[in-house]
Structure to design on (634 residues):
């Protein structure tokens, strides 16, 4: 693939990481930044990672989408916003769009693709990426990569040709891309990790995953939650007329064993909670519960966890 | 019954309330106090209650058990300590015991009677009281009675003649006594309230009961918990060779409907949690789980709640 021009909007830890890996692979990557703008403008953007450190000494960085747009049109906008920031997409992404610009949203949550699509011009090719990665911000301009680093990539509309364009974008980069024929299935599968681990870790007081996964009753609760989410997800796929199904035992085994190896890793909701920031309640917790309820699937554990996280989230907001 | 001489040890809200009601009924009640000693010594002890306000202007109050013992022997020691203070019983209660002194422990938890009995001279007649009451301390020397006010009373050893002595003690007072032929059954029944409501209210962030009981998924979780506790309790009664059984549907209906009427009431564990004090983890949560496990009764929800409260309790301690 020819070098692509890419704008990263929502350049927190996740957006910065994948943007940097694309820059490393030879693409022209430009970052929209707020908190870290001054540090990156003067000192560059720096990544510490077990897959190889990386420094972009002269990263293109701007404070506003208009200033970023002044660098010229882009082929891709990589969106790393929180789901709570979707209403800001017209303001943040709009100025960067031109004929043929594709949008890749690396975000958690059930219905974020529909919600983002509604904020974009009709016909914009939209991709959803589920980041399986542990990455946090350090000092301004410093990104610390802790775990994993893959993206499960789908296309909103499940267009296989478009999906291949997304896969090609990352060719030659250090990012493992796992193409997903059904974005809806990929989203439910990601929830099979996020709901139990983001959820229980917050409820247990904002603790890292080892406090949950190494505690037998909480491990069992996580497993129970995964079973409910799989049941709801498969009913949702069926209701959407899709033939894809989540393999429940496989996903449970995968996530439970992977999490056992993660040590004192803190899920994003825990980091938000411990820092007094709004939680992604709606995208990660409430919408899946609501969807299960519409489908008539009983999800008492998931409902309970959603309610408890909701109570805690209200205290934060 | 002749006026009895009664020492109240652990004169927090619960101990002070029942001690005051016994004084009101004509008994000679003496209070061991720490935090509120100065206020009560100079200004008396005051109760605000929907069952009638009460002031003991010249309450007998001392700072040490030895000073209280100097007022002469007592017929009863009413213990209102937290379960976490059981190891202090020899020091706090010992000096007050003489031939025939009876001990009534108004405390939550599964095995507190056994644990208290082990700290008392052999042969001491020990009663267990489960307070169904909402009462908190206000300003020093002020007790605020919010809800209910009964004691489910049992005798450690389930001696019916002794039990009657306990019932008689409260005759003529404003305290409703519900005699319990099986103290073990009474303790499990009380756990059917404490585990779901003390537990879920703490987990939801230290909220009052209306936040749990008025939230359908948390209401369902409370109901599920009650079912598990009933199953464990009935197995425990059977293992103890007792014929008494908890009526699960009755207790669930009673507690769920009663709690719906309690409004913004905060269970004791929530008050402890919000004040950064140690939680009664062992007596209310861990011992019931351990007992269920020994009996081979599956209690996944109770185990989960115990683990979550445990994690939160560790942060407090």
């Amino acid at each position: 693939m020819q070098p692509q021009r890419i704008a990263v909007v929502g350049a927190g830890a996740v957006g910065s990481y994948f943007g940097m890996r694309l820059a490393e692979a030879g693409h022209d990557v430009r970052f929209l930044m707020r908190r870290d703008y001054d540090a990156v403008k003067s000192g560059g953007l720096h990544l510490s990672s077990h897959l190889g450190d990386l420094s972009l000494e002269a990263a293109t960085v701007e404070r506003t989408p208009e200033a970023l747009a002044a660098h010229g049109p882009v082929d891709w906008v990589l969106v790393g916003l929180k789901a709570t920031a979707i209403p800001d997409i017209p303001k943040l992404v709009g100025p960067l769009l031109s004929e043929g610009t594709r949008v890749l949203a690396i975000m958690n949550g059930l219905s974020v693709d529909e919600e983002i699509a509604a904020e974009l011009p009709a016909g914009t090719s939209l991709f959803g990426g589920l980041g399986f990665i542990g990455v946090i911000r350090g000092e301004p301009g410093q990104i610390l990569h802790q775990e994993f680093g893959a993206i499960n990539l789908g296309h909103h509309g499940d267009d296989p040709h478009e999906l291949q364009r997304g896969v090609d974008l990352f060719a030659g980069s250090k990012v493992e891309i796992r193409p997903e024929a059904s974005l809806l299935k990929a989203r439910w599968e990601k929830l099979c990790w996020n709901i139990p681990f983001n959820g229980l870790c917050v409820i247990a007081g904002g603790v890292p995953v080892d406090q949950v996964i190494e505690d037998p009753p909480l491990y069992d609760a996580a497993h129970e939650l995964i079973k409910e989410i799989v049941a709801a997800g498969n009913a949702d796929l069926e209701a959407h007329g899709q033939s894809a199904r989540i393999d429940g035992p496989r996903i449970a085994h995968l996530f439970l064993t992977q999490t056992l190896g993660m040590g004192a890793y803190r899920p994003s909701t825990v980091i938000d909670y411990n820092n007094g920031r709004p939680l992604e309640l709606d995208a990660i917790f409430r919408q899946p519960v609501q969807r299960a309820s519409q489908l008539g699937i009983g999800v008492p554990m998931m409902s309970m966890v959603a309610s408890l996280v909701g109570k805690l989230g209200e205290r934060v907001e």
In short: The longest helix of chain B spans residues 216-239.
